[in-house]
Write the structure tokens for this entry.
Amino acid sequence: MEHELHYIGIDTAKEKLDVDVLRPDGRHRTKKFANTTKGHDELVSWLKGHKIDHAHICIEATGTYMEPVAECLYDAGYIVSVINPALGKAFAQSEGLRNKTDTVDARMLAEFCRQKRPAAWEAPHPLERALRALVVRHQALTDMHTQELNRTETAREVQRPSIDAHLLWLEAELKRLEKQIKDLTDDDPDMKHRRKLLESILGIGEKTSAVLLAYIGLKDRFAHARQFAAFAGLTPRRYESGSSVRGASRMSKAGHVSLRRALYMPAMVATSKTEWGRAFRDRLAANGKKGKVILGAMMRKLAQVAYGVLKSGVPFDASRHNPVAA
């Protein structure tokens, strides 16, 4: 039986993993693991210890919580599928699963895996993983730097030496990380070329291009520009109830917050400092759109343009995005 295919569902949370193994004989085996590097290794050891060498594993796309365990299982030789949470929710409803617990979700994913056989996921290249790790670390230290700056506004005199020393360390470490990120992308010709393509977009600089590269990577992982915008959580979501109550479309915010965060300031710059961005802003404003909606639309536009230049291999051409004069 160990050579037959097992179907495994994993519900990921910040601190733990709920694992449900659907065996070839239809029985289930469940276990919990810490969502840590050690916990991921223990999961692989547990699977191997039960002679589960052939398995198709389904995990919902939950951003940073699922990526490390998905990569660990992929590296261990398992088939891994990362599915849209909306698909899992629809499947649970179709199966009449009303209770929502982590254990139930894991079992639902195992059954989804058996019935739907979703496409296999391909883990990022090691270079992409390294870049993403550096980008995430840079964002974390940037947050710390902002927090310490805010503390200076109300700090007592006795606290200032400690805060100032920490700020100096953070600033030095941020510069070191920025150099490490640049060196990493410079050392790979393909990555360097893709970074230059991204930086040809007016409004996008080195920091933003690094974040975009960390998530787009070296391969065309997305079928089209809208799919990448959805991955970033930048596509609009319409709220409707019945036929008479309709809400305005809002940014879904269902994707990677790191990408939305990275595109916020470039969108501000593009809509105020570049000719093509101002034209885009004015066109939406003429249609009655307000500031936040316009900014969100520009973030989405930048994500789609970034995908476009990488897909085509052609640098950004602002004239293609300016309205034609009447």
